[in-house]
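Sat 14:20. Reprocessing the chain from the morning session after the first attempt stalled halfway. Input below, unchanged.
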Amino acid sequence: MRTRPINGRGILSGTGLIIILLATTLVALIFPVWSYADRSGTGQAAFDAQTVPTKFGPLSALDRDFVTRVRLAGLWELPAGQQSEQKGTTEAVRMAGMHLVEGHTALDEHVRDVAARLALALPDQPGTQQRQWLATLDAAQGKEYDRDFVNILRRAHGKVFTVVAQVRATTRNSLVRALADDANTVVLDHIKILEATGYVDFDALARDAATAGPPPLTVSPAPPGPTDNPGTPVPVTPSPTYSLPPATCSPPP
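Finished this time. Tokens:
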């Protein structure tokens, strides 16, 4: 049997092939990092593209979404609170309604001021899902109404609570930061007063949290960023027949 000699040229060819294979592998590992790091459509690029400058600090898409959400919350939670004062069968449910009205009356005034200073348009009608919730409450009566009112409102507040925390932790806009502070106080108060009714289904809340994805961005009626004519949103106010609960303490004489 004849043995093929291994010469220097064969050794060089084998070594070269190994080097080429190693280099190809290295490029394959590095290329995705290099090619996507600054590419349009990535998280950072999208964040930068959707952020606009203001004299109060950069205003991101999440900031604008948050401002819109605060306004939308008042547009349906305030009338829901007023309704519960009439239809609620327990003092605890009616008290929860009073907190909703009081909190969103003040919060709506704040969000309209922020929107005006940032030249952002605000909606004047609740969203589709919110109108469906109001229709459900309109149709319910008695104890069924109490349970529906408490659990619909508690579920909605739990979802917005996470958005408030994210905005407060990340916003670079001073007006949005102050609004998030107020919203955090109001939402937490409403969560506690709803839970105090004894009607909250915590098992259902846990199941929802386990299967829910991140909340979608709320579609604002305004184009991205400040607009030349944002309009003047109608204040969310209690009906003339409603009187707010007394202050917790009297002002000094």
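The helical segments are 8-37, 43-49, 61-87, 91-118, 128-139, 142-170, 174-195, 202-211.
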